[in-house]
Design brief:
- The structure holds 2 protein chains of 2 kinds.
- Chain A is an alpha/beta fold.
- In chain A, α9 packs across α10 and α16 (338-349) packs parallel to α19.
- Chain A has 3 domains: 42-298, 3-Layer(aba) Sandwich (Rossmann fold); 305-396, Fumarate Reductase Iron-sulfur Protein, Chain B, domain 2, CATH 1.10.1060; 411-469, no CATH class.
- In chain A, the strands form 2 sheets. A 6-stranded parallel β-sheet of chain A has the order 1-10-7-4-2-3, with helices on both faces. Chain A has a 4-stranded mixed β-sheet with strand order 8-5-6-9.
- Chain A has helices at 7-16, 18-40, 45-61, 63-76, 87-100, 112-117, 119-125, 135-142, 159-170, 180-197, 223-229, 250-262, 297-301, 316-319, 322-327, 338-349, 355-359, 366-370, 377-390, 396-410, 412-431, 433-438, 442-445, 459-469; strands spanning 80-84, 105-108, 129-132, 200-203, 207-209, 214-219, 233-239, 243-244, 269-273, 287-293.
- Chain B is of the alpha/beta class.
- Chain B contains 5 helices and 12 strands.
- Chain B has helices spanning 2-12, 30-33, 37-46, 58-71, 155-163, and strands spanning 50-55, 77-80, 96-99, 108-112, 115-117, 122-126, 141-147, 151-152, 172-176, 181-182, 190-191, 198-204.
- In chain B, the strands form 3 sheets. In chain B, strands 1-12-7-4-2-3 form a 6-stranded parallel β-sheet, sandwiched between helices. Chain B has a 4-stranded mixed β-sheet with strand order 8-5-6-9.
- In chain B, a hairpin with a 7-residue loop joins β10 and β11.
- Chain B is globular, with a radius of gyration of 20 Å.
- The chains are: A alpha/beta, B alpha/beta.
- At the A-B interface, α2, α3, α4, β1 and α8 of A face α1, α5, β9 and β10 of B.
- The structure holds iron/sulfur cluster.
- The site of iron/sulfur cluster has 14 residues of chain A, from α14.
């Protein structure tokens, strides 16, 4: 299926999938509450946000310069930079490095850019053994699935499902109903073998620092460090928008990232990788490569969607999205789900395949409010909708509906009249539940929702009446 | 590759580079209000499942190590990285230090941090021959020593201390705030995902 398409069908399936709904329910509250506590505890949060936004805007305006500064610093530290306009070029660069290193086994840390590249496919097709080492990525690799969340790839899986997968792949006689601790330690043993036997380690980067040529990796498991520091070759896959000017800028972003993502001040491990092992060192990779992927971002930089390139992939917009919370990440059928995905997918894969995805937004503005980089997500999604309408991409019915809505907007008198009538109708439905079964479309709407008893008057009417009372 | 580079840079254009002038004035005020940097660091680390002792003498270092290992029922054998000199640490009975070569075979390791960050409850370990980075990730128990004088209030100061050190930026600069953990199974925290299951920090106030 074309990336980005099929949202409607998949969303309906997701809503009916009880296991998925259970997993989503577990996740939802956790992220939101933890973020709020962490953000509330830092009164300077908004000021830090403002600075981070200013730094990113400045960097994007001067992106070419900072990328070249980064390149010079990487080379000075003994590393190499490979530029790629397309994901094919990026995969090609990785494959060439692996071939030169005579590699067989490749370990990987979590990287959304490598998902964009579909790097695992490319590596496996070329005959390499690839092992994902982030526990969540490992789980979905066993399940042959894609991540459903940008920071919690296996958030859609229940413990029972994980246990079943491990039964299948870890073999031997495993007792039933194992604890989470037991499952984690099984994976730990498995992955430890992979780490120690790897020839090439591939990680993503949360940030690239132009001044020092460092690539910054944030994890809680420490898998990124084992991936990067055991094999003889370390490859970083990163997109060009990851660069920030100075080492002194990093704390500003780190203060936002952990809090927004998981409610942590800092994740357990934050590592800055700069070049290969030093001359006197006896451990660490002998080669350090950075793949700089564009994949359309240089065009986005000069478009009305530039703001989206400030994203630090914290996942807060997903965690606070009503639609994501209801259907999970897979329904989006794209690398990036949720609000940031609704902005990025049409840009990465074209508007045609994303029409259903961009319509799945209630415009409630939660994502924009929690985004630490001040990205106006609903406004950007609306821009896609406007473009789709202008380019005549919507269905006939949708266009008619929108035209009708527009004409109502232009005739407030008629609009008031019609809403007053529908308010009465809703009251009637509430008072006589039997009527509900006779109303077209209401049946499927009521799946998972309750029709409240209505008062039969519009808000405007009540307001007016209230004013008269005063 | 060079063609891709040329095209990307051409698209991005050499825009009239506007000067970088974004002063870093916002830093969390709670650090300045705190009891002392060592106590703040201790409190923050303890909040993320790490045991911390602040010690005033060399004897207490040995006791702190033995106490930590006993608390976790671990053997009193400690692999030591090249950069740590244990000769000045009086060894309590039963405790055994040995120079550690193979980190994958080491159960408990003793290493040292160059700096601490009070703001975030973090120890900072630049990699080198003396301080191999894998010591921080392969052993089940990781013991890290830190001198109180090297605790910095915030991340910015720790970074600039690293940058201005003789060695400059190391290959791997590890900022460690707690033991390895994962919440990838049903958002429930489990410690010891890949790296150390237990982390112990000894702050030397001498
Ligand atoms: S758009 Fe904002 S909230 Fe969403 S992932 Fe990016 S930075 Fe986080």
């Amino acid at each position: 299926m074309q990336q980005g398409s099929g949202f409607k069908k998949d969303a309906v399936q997701a809503l009916q999938n009880e296991t998925l709904q259970a997993a989503l329910n577990t996740a939802r509250g956790g992220f939101v509450d933890k973020r709020r506590v962490a953000v509330d505890a830092l009164p300077e949060f908004d000021a830090i946000k403002a600075r981070a936004k200013a730094i990113k805007n400045h960097t994007l305006d001067n992106l070419g310069d900072y990328l070249q500064e980064f390149e010079r610093a990487v080379i000075a530290s003994g590393g190499q930079v490979h530029w790629a306009q397309t994901t094919e070029q990026a995969n090609q660069a990785v494959l060439e490095i692996c071939a030169q290193a005579n590699a067989k086994c490749v370990t990987k840390g979590k990287s959304m850019i490598s998902e964009e590249m579909q790097l695992n496919h490319a590596l496996e097709n070329a005959g390499y053994e690839v092992m994902e080492t982030d526990l969540g990525e490992y789980i979905i690799q066993l399940a042959k699935e894609t991540p459903s969340h940008i920071i919690a790839p296996a958030v859609h899986k229940t413990k029972a499902q994980v246990e079943a997968l491990f039964d299948e792949f870890h073999g031997a006689e495993l007792p039933p109903n194992r604890s989470r601790e037991q499952l984690v330690s099984e994976a730990r043993v498995r992955l430890r073998e992979a780490f120690l036997g790897a020839d090439v380690g591939i990680t993503g980067a949360n940030f690239l620092i132009a001044e020092t040529g460092s690539s910054v990796l944030v994890t809680n498991e420490g898998n990124g460090d084992l991936t990067a520091s055991i094999p003889g070759v370390h490859i970083v896959t990163a997109s060009i928008d990851k660069v920030i000017p100075k080492l002194d800028d990093l704390p500003t972003f780190l203060r936002l990232l952990g809090r927004s993502a998981t409610g942590q001040e800092l994740t357990a491990y934050t590592t800055l990788f700069t070049g290969p092992r030093r001359a006197e060192e006896t451990a660490g990779p002998e080669q350090f490569h950075v793949i700089l992927l564009d994949n359309g971002r240089s065009d986005i930089r000069d478009s009305e969607f530039k703001d989206a390139l400030r994203c630090i992939r914290c996942g807060a917009c997903l965690n606070h999205c009503a639609v994501y919370g209801a259907v999970g990440g897979h329904a989006y059928n794209a690398v990036y789900p949720g609000p940031i995905g609704q902005v990025m997918t049409p840009l990465l894969n074209g508007l045609d395949s994303s029409l259903e995805t961009i319509s799945a937004c209630t415009m409630n503005g939660h994502c924009k409010a929690v985004c630490p980089m001040g990205i106006p997500l609903p406004d950007l999604i609306r821009k896609h909708r406007v473009a789709a309408f202008e380019q005549n991409k919507n269905s006939f019915l949708e266009r008619k509906g929108l035209s009708f809505w527009k004409s109502m907007g232009l005739k407030p008198g008629v609009y008031r009249h019609l809403t007053a009538m529908s308010a009465k109708a809703v009251k009637l439905l509430g008072d006589f539940p039997l009527l509900q079964n006779l109303t077209p479309l209401l049946g499927s709407w009521k799946n998972g929702r309750v029709l409240m008893k209505a008062r039969g008057k519009t808000f405007q009417a009540l307001l007016k009446a209230g004013r008269k009372h005063d | 590759m060079t063609e891709a580079r040329r095209q990307i840079l051409e698209k991005l254009g050499a825009v009239a580079a506007d000067e970088y002038c974004i002063p870093n004035t916002v830093q969390p005020a709670f650090v300045a209000r705190s009891e002392s940097l060592a106590l703040l660091l201790k409190r923050k680390l303890e909040a993320v499942h790490t045991s911390v002792d602040i010690v005033g003498s060399a004897e207490q270092v040995g006791q702190s190590i033995a106490g930590f290992l006993n608390a976790h029922g671990s053997p009193l054998k400690v692999g030591v990285v090249p950069g740590v000199d244990t000769s000045s640490i009086p060894v309590p009975p039963g405790l055994d230090f040995y120079p550690c070569q193979d980190m994958a075979a080491c159960h408990t390791v003793l290493t040292s941090a160059a700096f601490g960050i009070a703001e975030t409850g973090t120890v900072v370990l630049p990699s080198s021959l003396q301080r191999p980075t894998l010591a921080n990730f392969l052993p089940d128990n990781c013991i890290i020593m830190l001198d109180e004088v090297n605790i910095r209030p915030c991340m910015e100061e720790a970074f600039s201390s690293v940058q201005n050190s003789d060695a400059g930026m190391p290959r791997a600069l590890n900022l460690i705030s707690g033991p390895s953990k994962t919440a990838d199974i049903e958002q429930t925290l489990v410690y010891g995902a890949h790296g150390p299951i237990q982390l112990h920090v000894i702050i030397r106030a001498v």
